[in-house]
């Protein structure tokens, strides 16, 4: 049997991640270091370390940011309480929340204002979930898994709506929604699916390359929800084995023993240089150059945050 390596496309950076990373880079250029960033700007260790080297300071909470300093909010979004705290402490804020996450926040406010209880499908503790729940904390119930639906209790079954974290497994989310709808027939859906286009495309692309793969390597950090999901999707789609690595240095050569067909992809917050490193690692061990399988083209881009655009224009004055 001939050895082969297939690399999925689309993979890597999505429009929201690209916008967030460029936001921090431009802020450093414009205001000079340090620029503070609340939480990891995106869930990728290499991106964070690169920005730290350029003068970004990542903090867990706003209390760590000096009064009056500039702080960037990460792509995952923040709750209204965080915005209020920043204003109270006189911080200059640049909101790099992905516009697709902002859409979910808007939907949460609207559903709550209309008197609905919100069933938010997502992972407890994830920054995006915490930000969305913060829009209507007393009206939102978190549903982490399809099996959790059985224990969900609401005040009024006729006034219930669902939303989801943007980076979940598409298939598992629809299974959860199906079970919710069986339990609450009057369940209201958001105007459009919350799972972002990039998450869906990367999952569809990995399904395509995993079907007859002996091994699928997913490049992405352990706290990247969409990267972790890609491993699960690869295994569900027929891959004999699948592992997540931050970079080529984390590949165990034992994974390659007896392997003929390898698939490679990456999460939405991963620079492509890390994928190229994995492909080079495979070539050094006798695998052929990778062939790209492209599922679809992605042409979406997002404008930089308005606060930053305004200051950039003024600087160019």
Q: What's the short version?
A:
By secondary structure, the protein is of the alpha/beta class. It has helices at residues 15-31, 45-53, 80-88, 99-113, 127-133, 170-183, 197-210, 225-236, 272-284, 306-316; strands spanning 4-9, 35-38, 56-59, 70-73, 92-95, 117-121, 140-143, 160-164, 215-219, 242-245, 261-266, 291-294. Helix 4 packs parallel to helix 5 (127-133) and helix 7 packs parallel to helix 8 (225-236).
Our Rg estimate from Cα atoms comes to 21 Å
Strand order of the largest sheet: 10-9-11-1-12
Low-confidence stretches: none
- Structural class by secondary-structure content: alpha/beta
Number of helices: 10
Report the oligomer.
Answer: single chain
Estimate the global geometry from the Cα principal axes.
flat
Number of strands: 12
Strand content: 15-25%
What sequence of helices (H) and strands (E) makes up the elements?
A: EHEHEEHEHEHEEHHEHEEHEH
The main β sheet shows up as:
5 strands, parallel
Describe what you observe in this structure.
Helix 1 packs across helix 10 and helix 4 runs parallel beside helix 5. Strands 10-9-11-1-12 form a 5-stranded parallel beta sheet, sandwiched between helices. Strands 3-2-4-5 form a 4-stranded parallel beta sheet, with helices on both faces. The mean pLDDT is 97. It is built from 10 helices and 12 strands. By secondary structure, the chain is α/β, with parallel strands linked by helices. The protein has helices at 15-31, 45-53, 80-88, 99-113, 127-133, 170-183, 197-210, 225-236, 272-284, 306-316; strands at residues 4-9, 35-38, 56-59, 70-73, 92-95, 117-121, 140-143, 160-164, 215-219, 242-245, 261-266, 291-294.
